[in-house]
Amino acid sequence: MVDRDDEVAKPIRLILSDVDGVLTDGMITIDNAGVESKSFYVRDGHGIKLWKKAGFEFGLLTARNSQVVKLRAQELGIQWVRQGFADKLPAAREMMQAIGVEPHEVCYIGDDLPDMTVMANVGLAVTVADAAQEVKHLAHWVMNNPGGRGAVRELIERILQAKGRWEDLVPSRLR
Predict the structure, then answer these.
(1) Cys-Cys link to 135, which of 1, 31, 76, 131 (CB 3.0-4.6 A)?
(2) Domains of the chain with CATH codes
(3) Each residue of 99-130: pLDDT tens digit?
(4) Do the beta carbons of residue 8 and residue 124 sit within 8 Å?
């Protein structure tokens, strides 16, 4: 675990996130017609918008292919989306190169074993409260919130606070 948030948070310019179990609660619903649905927490989405408003990049990296993920990414203005990668590290490296960031400038948030290779190769490895134990042991930070219930928002707030940028995003009438 890292005690000093600012030491690891200051260089972060890109957050990469898994989807199922991080931006959702991990439940995948498929109806009788084969139509898939997922639930996304609105505050996570707002956090992503605030992160982007602060001038940083956000990307999605998932082993599954899902039209729902594509639609949610479009809704949030996330241009960096890679789906269908069982081995996530090559896709993460490709996104880092395309964006122009080094691994120490990247935060990755995941929840399960397929996320561990990326987590081991970035500056800030983060997981959700209900992650697999192996993932928790690898993570620098473990969020208090579970996947699909505010963990991404919690992460974004924590990084932006450590960077001294959170107050810039909170409306002045609320401070």
Answers:
(1) 131
(2) 5-165 (3.40.50.1000)
(3) 999 999 999 999 999 999 999 999 999 999 99
(4) yes
